[in-house]
């Protein structure tokens, strides 16, 4: 059965970070996720999770370096090793990775170190994924590779198609290297989110949901997320569905919209 998790950095933003865990628990969530770990006190984070009976479903595994930039290979791999150690401290089973590092705002892809071809960038990513696969298997952690939209939020990002992400993951051939399918990003880039998730289901290790085009809660845009979540359940998807969006009005309204997606078969 699929599980729902709520993003405690994009949601509950009206509360201090330390108070968001109790709020998520009160709202009926058993799983949360977040972005980067470097700015967190990891032992304190683990205590906040344990004290509130929560599990961390996913967090970011890469930082200021681009996987698709050959010049970043060594520093990228060093950061991945640090992310694995951080994940062990907080018992996080999933680390999210990307092709490019992003500028803080606006979130354009950081400039490359050279004028590399498409093929060079693909090979750079494959080399890194092949190296980190046994690390992930040994640590019991899954890395999920996320494609991002390039029409609104992340201009210049290299990995923008589900098929390319799947092709890379399939070529690596590890059960601990999978795809993060973000329905918001891929709706903007590709559309056909039900058909795509059905086609590539064996390669999907995590999902993100936000409505399009505004990146707010379900019901504020054009995607029918009640049907989409039910579609995932019928397919037999057993991973987490992470609600990563910015509330259009306030957190209580956004949380209500999330819960309504699961009314047919609520799984905490």
Number of strand segments = 8
What's the CATH class label?
Alpha Beta
- Cα distance spanning the termini: 10 Å
Q: Might you state the CATH topology name? A: TIM Barrel
How many distinct domains?
1
For this structure, what is the CATH homologous superfamily? Answer: Divalent-metal-dependent TIM barrel enzymes
Give the H and E element order.
EHEHEHEHEHEHHEHEH
Helical fraction equals: 25-40%
User: How much beta, percentage-wise?
Assistant: 5-15%
Largest sheet: 8 strands, parallel, barrel
**Whole-number radius of gyration?**
17 Å
Regions with pLDDT < 50 over 5+ consecutive residues? Answer: none
Could you say which overall geometry the principal axes of the C-alpha atoms support?
globular
Helix and strand content put the structural class at alpha/beta
Query: How many separate helices?
Result: 9
Order of strands, main sheet, comes to 1-2-3-4-5-6-7-8
CATH architecture tag: Alpha-Beta Barrel
Average pLDDT over all residues: 95
Domain Xylose isomerase-like TIM barrel: 21-255
Keywords: Isomerase
InterPro entries: HyI-like, Sugar_Epim/Isomerase, Xyl_isomerase-like_sf, Xyl_isomerase-like_TIM-brl
Organism: Ectobacillus funiculus
């Amino acid at each position: 059965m699929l599980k729902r998790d709520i993003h405690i950095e994009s949601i509950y933003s009206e509360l201090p970070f330390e108070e968001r865990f109790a709020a998520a628990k009160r709202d009926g969530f058993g799983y949360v996720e977040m972005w980067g770990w470097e700015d967190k006190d990891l032992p304190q984070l683990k205590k906040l999770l344990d004290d509130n009976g929560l599990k961390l479903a996913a967090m970011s595994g890469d930082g200021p370096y681009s996987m698709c930039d050959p010049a970043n290979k060594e520093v990228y791999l060093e950061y991945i090793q640090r992310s694995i150690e951080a994940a062990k401290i907080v018992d996080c089973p999933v680390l999210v990775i990307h092709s490019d590092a992003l500028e803080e705002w606006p979130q354009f892809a950081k400039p490359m170190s050279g004028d590399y071809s498409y093929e060079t960038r693909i090979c750079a990513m494959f080399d890194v994924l092949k190296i980190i696969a046994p690390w992930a298997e040994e640590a019991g952690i899954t890395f999920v590779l996320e494609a991002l939209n390039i029409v609104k939020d992340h201009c210049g990002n290299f990995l923008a198609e589900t098929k390319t992400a799947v092709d890379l993951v399939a070529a690596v051939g590890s059960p601990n290297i999978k795809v993060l399918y973000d329905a918001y990003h891929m709706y903007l880039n590709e559309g056909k989110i039900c058909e795509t998730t059905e086609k590539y289901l064996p390669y999907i290790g995590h999902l993100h949901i936000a409505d399009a085009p505004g990146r707010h809660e379900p019901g504020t845009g054009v995607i029918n997320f009640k049907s989409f979540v039910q579609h995932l359940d019928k397919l037999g998807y057993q991973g987490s569905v992470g609600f990563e969006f910015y509330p259009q009005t306030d957190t209580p309204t956004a949380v209500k919209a999330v819960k309504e997606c699961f009314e047919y078969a609520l799984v905490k």
